[in-house]
């Protein structure tokens, strides 16, 4: 099948593949996705799929990278009202789409390696937002960060994709407040220029 002309009104093949990926991930477990079914839904041939991606796993990895919002951790944690800031940011329709996709990536239809990769990527974004070198973290820091971000992602996967306002539920009350306070404490202690007390 020839690639559509730009003026044809049809989405480019790679975008149709991405749309098909998200639709199918919402319908069937990741392990049941096939390149053939994905290509069929996107109305492209399998050679077109391989032009853009090496495999379904390669595509899933790309979807993680494309849907993370690098500026989100700094914006949320820079605010004294992190819950309100997260809700405000996720009220943006562009971010809502990304939020729903992240929920799909960690959802019950996902694969363990995808959840693990996304967890590592989210933690890396948080560390980068505060200029923290991972080697400066103590073992306790690592455990607390993993517990918080891993827990949040798994909750989002279990109950998502839902309205982005559901993130507010995770950050309210004593558990959410403690998680945010813990992350702020680590950022304060481990950011460049902070005292390196363990």
Keywords:
198 residues, Tetracycline Repressor, domain 2, 2 domains
Radius of gyration: 19 Å
What is the terminal separation in angstroms?
60 Å
Indicate the percent of residues in helices.
55-70%
Write the H/E string, N to C.
Answer: HHHHHHHHHHH
The helix count comes to: 11
Flag low-confidence runs: none
Strand tally: 0
Strand % is under 5%
Structural class: mainly alpha
The biggest sheet, with number of strands, parallel, antiparallel or mixed sense and barrel status, is: none
Mean pLDDT: 81
What does this 3D model show about the protein?
The protein has 198 residues and is mostly helical. The chain folds into two domains: 6-63, Tetracycline Repressor, domain 2 (Orthogonal Bundle); 69-190, no CATH class. The protein is 67% helix and 0% strand. It has eleven helices and no strands. The longest helix is centred in the last third of the chain and has 21 residues, at 139-159. The model has no long low-confidence stretch (mean pLDDT 81).
What is this structure's SSE topology?
Layout: H1 13-27, H2 35-42, H3 46-52, H4 56-67, H5 72-78, H6 82-89, H7 93-105, H8 112-129, H9 139-159, H10 166-171, H11 173-190
Helix pairs in contact: 1-2, 4-8, 5-6, 7-9, 8-9, 9-11
Write a brief caption for the model.
By secondary structure, this protein is mainly alpha-helical.
């Amino acid at each position: 099948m020839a690639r559509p002309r730009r003026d044809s009104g049809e989405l480019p093949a790679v975008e149709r593949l991405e749309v098909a990926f998200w639709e199918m991930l919402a319908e069937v477990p990741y392990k049941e996705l096939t390149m053939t079914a994905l290509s069929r839904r996107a109305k492209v041939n399998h050679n077109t799929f391989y032009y853009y991606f090496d495999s379904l796993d390669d595509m899933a990895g790309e979807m993680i990278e494309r849907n993370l919002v690098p500026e989100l951790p700094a914006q949320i944690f820079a605010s004294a009202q992190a819950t309100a800031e997260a809700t405000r940011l996720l009220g943006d329709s562009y971010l809502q789409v990304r939020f729903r996709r992240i929920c799909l990536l960690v959802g019950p239809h996902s694969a363990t390696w995808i959840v693990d990769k996304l967890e590592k990527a989210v933690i890396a974004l948080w560390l980068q937002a505060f200029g923290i070198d991972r080697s400066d973290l103590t073992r306790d820091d690592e455990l607390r960060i993993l517990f918080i971000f891993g827990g949040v992602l798994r909750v989002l996967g279990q109950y998502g994709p839902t309205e982005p306002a559901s993130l507010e539920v995770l950050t309210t009350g004593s558990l959410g407040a403690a998680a945010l306070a813990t992350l702020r404490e680590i950022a304060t202690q481990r950011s460049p220029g902070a005292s390196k007390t363990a």
